[in-house]
Queue: 2 jobs
Job 1
Amino acid sequence: MSYSQSHLLGIEPLSPTDITAILDLADQYVDLNRRDIKHSDALAGLTQINMFFENSTRTQASFELAGKRLGADVMSMAMQASSIKKGETLIDTALTLNAMHPDLLVVRHPHSGAVDLLAQKVNCAVLNAGDGRHEHPTQALLDALTIRRAKGRLHRLSIAICGDIAHSRVARSNILLLGKMENRVRLVGPPTLMPSQIGQFGVEVYEDMREGLRDVDVVMMLRLQRERMDGGFIPSEREYYHRYGLDAEKLSYAKEDAIVMHPGPMNRGVEIDGEIADDINRSVIQEQVEMGVAVRMAAMDLLARNLRAKPAEVMA
Amino acid sequence: MKTHFTNARLIDPENGTDRIGALRVEDGVIKSVVYDDAPTDDAETVDCGGKCLAPGIVDIGVKVCEPGERHKESYKSAGLAAAAGGITTMVTRPDTLPATDSPETLEFVARRANEAAPVNVLPMAALTKGRAGREMTEIGFLLDAGAVAFTDCDHVVTDTKVFSRALTYARSLGALVIAHPQEPTLSAGAAATSGKFASLRGLPAVSPMAERMGLDRDIALLEMTGARYHADQITTARALPALERAKKNGLDITAGTSIHHLTLNELDVADYRTFFKVKPPLRSEDDRQAVIAALRDGLIDTISSMHTPQDEESKRLPFEEAASGAVALETFLPAALRLYHASDLDLPTLFRAMALNPAKRLGLASGRLAPGAPADLILFDADAPFVLDRWKLNSKSKNTPFDGARMQGKVKATYVAGQCVFEAS
């Protein structure tokens, strides 16, 4: 089991072996997390700093819990409220924190590429917790783990990703990951919410949701990011729900055992019908949250192993 | 004073020739050009050793950050950079702080420039006050004060009525208007050109169609007003047919492009390298090839450096937040020579676009190797290889996309009106 990178900035630089290494270790952490005593010392003595330049509840909580369960010293900073307001640049903030010798830096930022930039300026392992519309690698990894556990494999599956693809970093990371693992990926949504030339990413694009869901194994819904809708991508929420909201009728086009996923937080009645979200036979939305903690534990554990291996290499 | 340049590879953009000959300069003016080695007399002789002697570059659209941001670039530093880069005439942009939109500011700029820069500096003035697109500037007074063209730079005058009146008024004075063809509501917030690369990187992007829409509107207004018009940067294949039609219809229109759009494409941005963020954003390789072909055919008239100094702070930011623009005075020639070494364009064609055409458009006598033209000349070795080190640039700002790039072509000497203003050590 080996992970070749010194950061987790995106799915793009990962090989299938890297992905499998994270998922295999995450499986072990799922077991740990289900025990009474949910603790390991894998990150003991290490310092983890969470820097969130954008609001987040679940991702931040998940990273925080993951670090604590592995014995790291965890500090979370809500960056919106702090120095950014005082005019400090991203790099100065990063250098300031770097001087405190963190080992793991978890970063979310509203601009694409900001986490890559930061990773160039610090000498600890950086985990991307979402940058702009670019990538959200731990979300794609937790989705992959959920699929692998529900379907027994992570290849040769037909997976539909539905909704606001254009503004979604979750979609980009999932397209890359599922493609690397040799699955068929379909994108379903109105053309105003599709990135340009997305067809060149090795995916099939559908504007009709029923056609798009026909015989798929996995239906992955995306949040309709209302806060990013700075002008008329869709006529109204109700028309969107009518054409692209997941209800029982549309879901009936998918395979009978198809699972339903959503990265959360859900807009019930906008992109997904409440009953489907709660249907324990179809929805794996709660499992996704559970896998999130395990995947983040695995990713940080593997990065920490690489950190510790570094001085040894130098000495050898 | 008399100088005789012998054994020179003369690059003559007017006649489209590239051959060994000799050139004689008297009192700052080219006296004769001969292709059989004439005997020298009392003149000082410069043996060019078979290297290229070409008209100095006339660069329309150089940003010097005076007044306002002298820490980014001053007339002194820009002048040194221009001399070292073989640019003998800088036509400067009015997007300063405050904008160069009044005769008083223009006079300040002209005085500073003449004191500090060893090359010719010709200032442009804003077309509208504060480049805000609402009221036209004092075009008549500004012409008298020495403005060679009127432009709001990358600000588009969105109010069509304001723009049409400014064009009409400028026409009555014979003033040249330079515009940035772009549909600004479509390109608002964009940091990249829409396509696979921008989608992969998750960057807000603009369709190349926005350039054509802007150009189409401007062409319609030219038909209406008959103004003299130059498009600052045509960078996409889609805009070319409209430009071709406008020229065929006899409108007084010319077009330029930037050296960066000719030599780089969107993929060079790679992992969010902000030194590659320019305006308009870098385009696809297909667009780049189409623009090179248009330059070869003469459809696009000029190449500019679009020299835009930015300090480190404004570039060391996430890509979307980072400032646009690149310094280019000293990399202009070696970058252009990439097109020569790639057999895309020959040297006379390059100098037609870098010297002859811009000079003609501004009504200057320079840009030619002809008797009577000012002796603004550059002597360069088109083949000499080097690796660019941005910290060695004369510009105060070091934001070049060519840092660490392997390039070919070194300026050996630059002459303005027969005087040597730069000599390579």
Job 2
Amino acid sequence: MNSIWTIARKELSDSLRNRWLIAIAIVFATLAVGIAWFGAAASGQVGYASTPATIASLASLGIFLIPLIALLLAYDAIVGEEEGGTLLLLMTYPLSRGQLLFGKFLGHGLTLALATLIGFGVAGVAIALLVEDVAVGALAVAMFRFIVSTTLLGWSFIALAYVVSVRVSEKPVAAGLALAIWFFFVLIFDLMLLGTLVASQGEFNPELLPWLLLLNPTDIYRLLNIVTFSDSAQLSGVLSLGADLPIGPSGLWLALVLWFVIPLTGAWALFRSRRI
Amino acid sequence: MSCFRLENVSYKYDKALVLNGVDLRLEPGEILGLFGHNGAGKTTSIKLILGLMTPSQGKVSVLEGEAGDPKISQYIGYLPENVMFYPQLTGREILAHFARLKGANLRQVPELLEQVGLDDAMDARVKTYSKGMRQRLGLAQALLGKPRLLMLDEPTVGLDPVATADLYRLLRKLRDEGTGIVLCSHVLPGVEPYIDRAAILTDGSLKAVGDLASLRRQANMPTTLSIEPENTVAALESVVNSAKASAGLMMRHDNGRLHVDVRPAEKMELVKALMASGEVRDLGIYQPTLEDVYVHFIGSGGLAHRGGAQ
């Protein structure tokens, strides 16, 4: 446990030193405040629209941004150590590969969690203080749910980045594959799902289709933050499938947790069999 | 208690045999030189002892335990070839990080940095370090936590002569305190005075092991006598020729001195005969150096190998 914390501590102090943590937090806070203030712009006025609409807009942006940030933060975790020449040395220390990987995850995960908490937390407090007649209780609950799910989404992409990072031997390759992961889950997956739906002309098993949403952490995240607020009538695209899911919010939370546990375990297994 | 013991160890990388039936051991308080051309298996042997890889065949035991066991690696210090560190951190931060990982006392950090001569640069970022300074930091890192087994791969690369001498003095001190030390180097004349035993690897098998005297015996390489004649070279030559052990001796002369190559076993006999003849004004005896012995065991192919890639 001590060595895990030593590794995590170095990652955390690295992200403080290179100002990643503070930069991410500022980006999040700016986005959140901006969306809160101009949320009603679509309806022709400037001002706070409503808590559900704000969270939904934030989540839509988060889907693009969070995976990208998490992948950027973590793609070189192992391959970077190897290229920097420190992996071999680290492995001669009383430190197992699992401890190194979990230490990295703790460090990167805490970085992202702190940035999310500070960024969106500050924005939440600003909204609560500055917007008149906002229901503070509901806002706090929604913001809390949003921050936790954003962190979990980030963790799942950190874990996915590790799968790449323990497998390849060059940093540029890892970066390319990380971008491919982002492209697949954020852009391609929903298109494929919609395509399948349309192409099958209703032949596709309608029971099965909603479950396919669970194969994409960004869809789970979207369901958690958008569906719980809106009438299913307003949902568009593949999200309307989510309304048919029989598992409820707790199932979705569990699925999102599994989305970082399983890739992290996979990365660990791959790392153990890697030749150094 | 041995520092490490390799028993009939073989290692296959893909299908190529990198190490073939190697038997080698190191006792505490001993400096072992590990020599061989690039790709001979030095680094593989070290990685097996560090537990980074497991042998395809044979047994590796380190400090009476299993190689790679965290309880064991705590007592091993290792300096890799071309050691690298996190460029954004300072020397002190890096050493503290590694000290925490090794469970070493953090008070050791400034002490070790001072010991390797980095006390002025310990708060500068490593990216501003020269190669020699990185090497010193690597040494400090290897010495964390009082290792019982120290493995140094090309430790003197980038070090100036004074720092090199300091390093060897330090290694002697550690050896006298009971640390077992493995030294890999291509600078054979540099390490020759400091090693207790040498092991020579070629193509994954151990060609020779032993102290320098026994390696010379194994190699059966001639000792060269350089003789300045009292009278004439010709007179001297006739003395050598009439000596009992003269069969097959090589003789050549230049600058008025006679050089005679003599087998180790016959050396004393010839020297006695020379001294008795009264034809000798001055005598120099040149034993084969570590480098000569190394080249002998590596064979003529050795030179071609040495240019090879790592």
